[in-house]
Amino acid sequence: MVRRVFYSFHYQLDATRVQQIKNMGAVEGQRIVSSNEWETLKRQGDNAIKRWIDNAMKYTSCTIVLVGAETSDRKWVQYEIQHSFDEKRPIFGIYIDQVRDIRGQTIRRGKNPFTRWTVGEGLNRINLDKLVPVYDPKATWDTPYQVIRQNMERWIEDAIKRGGTHV
Predict the structure, then answer these.
(1) What is d(CA 70, CA 115) in angstroms, rounded to the nearest whole number?
(2) Which phi and psi angles does 67 have, rounded to 5°?
(3) Predicted pLDDT of residue 167
(4) Whole-structure pTM over 0.85, yes or no?
(5) Cα–Cα distances in Å, from 90 out to 16, 39, 85, 143?
(6) Sign of dihedral through CA atoms 122, 161, 49, 95?
(7) How far apart are CA 155 and CA 152, in angstroms?
(8) Tens of pLDDT along 3-18?
(9) Helices 11-22 and 35-43 meet at what angle, rounded to 10?
(10) What are the Cα distances from residue 106, in Å, to 24, 39, 77, 98, 100?
């Protein structure tokens, strides 16, 4: 079954890596906006960006955070995580630091974007990074691209089985 997903990522630094992942065809993802479209959207303000994100997430099965060098610090990535959490949308991450860009370059490993979030209350409070996996595709003999391609559908199905990110 082909699932429709929402990709969350740092546009400026990681768009070419994300495009490679999207082009695998393992899942149907949202259309990645061009740099001109993104600039136009940014000029319309934060509410326009939120509306675009909210609409792009509609009817998706899962959110996939593609973690590059600076992904965890991005305002809109944090909004997308929060929105996924609020909507009880399954979510997980994939480190993409070893996926080569169009120049053949890799980047430094970024921080886990789920570490700043907690769920539950009082003694039941837990960091979201304990509940939400971030897969590391370089931890094998295949190329990171091959690992992602071979495992993407299973990772999505596992996230859906886990359900939303609530405790």
Answers:
(1) 14
(2) -90, 110
(3) 42
(4) yes
(5) 25, 29, 8, 26
(6) positive
(7) 5
(8) 889 999 998 888 888 8
(9) 130
(10) 19, 25, 21, 5, 5
Determine which helix (DSSP H) or strand (DSSP E) holds 119, and give its type and residue range. Answer: strand 118-119
DSSP-assigned states of every residue in 53-107: HHHHHTT-SEEEEEE-TTGGG-HHHHHHHHHHHHTT--EEEEE-TTS--TTS---
What is the CB-side half-sphere exposure of residue 34 using CA atoms within 13 A? Answer: 3
Reported as a single tens digit per residue, the pLDDT across 91-112 is 999 999 999 888 888 999 999 9
Contact 85, 117 (CB under 8 A): yes
Rg of the chain on CA atoms, in Å:
15
Neighbour count for residue 67 (Cβ, 10 Å)? 27
Distances (CA, A) of 110 to 92, 98, 101: 15, 11, 16
The dihedral sign for the CA sequence 12, 36, 60, 154: negative
Q: Which two tokens stand for residue 3?
A: 């699932």
